[in-house]
C-alpha cells in the first residue's frame, strides 16, 4: 500500500517529540476511570477521612488531571491503527522521510523495528492490537509514561508510540502529590464560629467589661479547629488504581486578637464552652485593657486558625513519598463592645 497526502503527516512529525506516559483509561469516562473535562483528561479520585466533604461517605469523588496517558494514535484518514503492518508502512513512507535535520530526533520517539515485527506477529496470530500515543502536558511529563527512553545527540527521547493489546494500554500516570494538593483544597476546614461570655444584659447591651476575663470558644469545633487534637485528615485514592495520598492538617489552636487584648489558645481550650462555675484557666480568655468607646459597634475581634499541612502517599511503582504542603487559614471578625464599670470602695 502506498500512502498519500504527506501534508497530513506534519502534525505527527512534531508530535514525535512528545514525551510518553502510562495511561490505559480512555477519555469520556470509559474503562480506566478517565474523564474528558473542560480542562482536559482526568481520573476519578475517591476522598475519605474526617476532613472529606460529608466525612467521605457515599463515595465522594473528584477528578484530578494525570501526568500523562495513552490515546489511540492520530493518523491520517484511511490508516488502520489496528493493523501493525499498515502502521509500520505508514511510518516508513509518510513519517520517516521528514525526520531529518532539526527533526531527526523524532525518529527515536517511534518503536524499533523489533517492536513493529513483534506486533505484526501477534496480530497475525489473532491478537487484537492497537497503536497508541502518549499525551501529557510536556516532554518531562510524558517521560513518566514511556515504555522506553532513547538517546540522541545528548538528548533523552521518550518513545511516544507503542502497540498494545486493544483496550489494554497502561493506566494514566498520576502524581500522588497532585492528589495531595487536590485533597487539601477539598478538605473541610471552616471559619471559626465564635461565642463568648459574659454578654451584659440591659444597659450593657451585650458588652463585656474592662479587665474582666472574657471567655471565647468555637461552636463548630471539629470543622474549624479539628477538635481537641487540632487535627484533620483526608485521603485521596485513584478509583481502580493503586496511587493514593493522605493529607494531615494540624493547628496550634485559636488566636483571638483585638485592639485592646489578645490570646493564643490551644485547641482543647478553644473548644471549651463556658459554664457556671468554670475556672478561667480552663478556657480561652481575653482581658480587654480599655473600653471600646472609639468603636461604636465594639472592638473588631478576629478569631483565626492557621493550619499546617503534610502528606504521604504511594506512587504507581509502590514508592512511598510525602512532604509538606502549603497551609490554610480561616478567620472571622466579630464586634465585641467593652464597657468600663465605675465603683466606689470603702
From TrEMBL:
Region (Disordered): 24-48
Highest taxon above the source species: Bacteria
Signal peptide (UniProt feature, chain positions): 1-25
Keyword terms of this UniProt record: Signal
UniProt name for this protein: Uncharacterized protein
Lineage: Bacteria, Bacillati, Actinomycetota, Actinomycetes, Jiangellales
Amino acid at each position: 500500500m502506498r500512502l498519500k497526502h504527506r501534508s497530513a503527516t506534519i502534525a505527527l512529525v512534531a508530535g514525535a517529540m512528545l514525551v510518553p506516559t502510562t495511561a490505559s483509561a480512555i477519555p469520556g469516562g470509559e474503562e480506566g476511570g478517565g474523564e474528558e473535562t473542560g480542562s482536559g483528561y482526568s481520573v476519578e479520585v475517591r476522598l475519605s477521612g474526617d476532613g472529606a466533604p460529608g466525612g467521605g461517605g457515599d463515595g465522594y469523588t473528584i477528578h484530578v488531571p494525570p501526568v500523562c496517558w495513552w490515546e489511540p494514535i492520530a493518523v491520517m484518514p484511511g490508516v488502520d491503527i489496528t493493523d501493525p503492518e499498515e502502521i509500520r508502512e505508514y511510518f516508513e513512507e509518510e513519517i520517516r522521510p521528514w525526520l531529518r535535520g532539526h527533526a531527526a530526533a523524532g525518529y527515536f520517539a517511534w518503536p524499533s523495528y523489533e517492536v513493529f515485527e513483534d506486533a505484526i506477529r501477534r496480530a497475525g496470530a489473532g491478537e487484537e492490537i492497537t497503536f497508541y500515543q502518549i499525551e501529557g502536558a510536556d516532554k518531562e511529563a510524558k517521560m513518566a509514561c514511556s515504555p522506553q527512553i532513547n538517546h540522541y545527540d545528548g538528548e533523552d527521547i521518550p518513545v511516544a508510540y507503542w502497540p498494545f493489546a486493544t483496550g489494554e494500554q497502561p493506566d494514566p500516570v498520576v502524581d500522588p502529590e497532585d492528589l495531595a494538593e487536590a485533597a487539601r483544597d477539598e478538605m473541610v476546614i471552616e471559619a471559626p464560629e465564635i461565642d463568648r461570655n459574659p454578654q451584659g444584659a440591659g444597659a450593657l447591651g451585650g458588652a463585656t467589661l474592662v479587665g474582666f476575663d472574657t471567655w471565647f470558644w468555637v461552636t463548630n469545633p471539629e470543622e474549624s479547629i479539628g477538635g481537641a487534637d487540632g487535627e484533620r485528615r483526608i485521603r485521596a485514592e485513584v478509583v481502580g488504581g493503586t496511587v493514593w495520598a493522605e493529607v494531615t492538617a494540624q493547628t496550634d489552636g485559636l488566636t483571638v486578637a483585638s485592639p485592646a487584648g489578645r490570646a493564643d489558645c490551644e485547641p482543647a481550650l478553644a473548644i471549651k464552652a463556658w459554664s457556671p462555675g468554670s475556672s478561667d484557666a480552663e478556657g480561652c480568655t481575653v482581658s480587654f485593657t480599655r473600653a471600646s468607646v472609639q468603636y461604636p459597634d465594639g472592638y473588631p475581634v478576629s478569631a483565626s486558625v492557621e493550619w499546617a499541612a503534610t502528606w504521604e502517599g504511594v506512587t504507581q511503582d509502590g514508592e512511598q513519598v510525602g512532604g509538606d504542603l502549603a497551609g490554610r487559614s480561616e478567620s472571622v471578625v466579630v464586634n465585641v463592645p467593652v464597657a468600663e464599670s465605675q465603683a466606689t470602695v470603702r
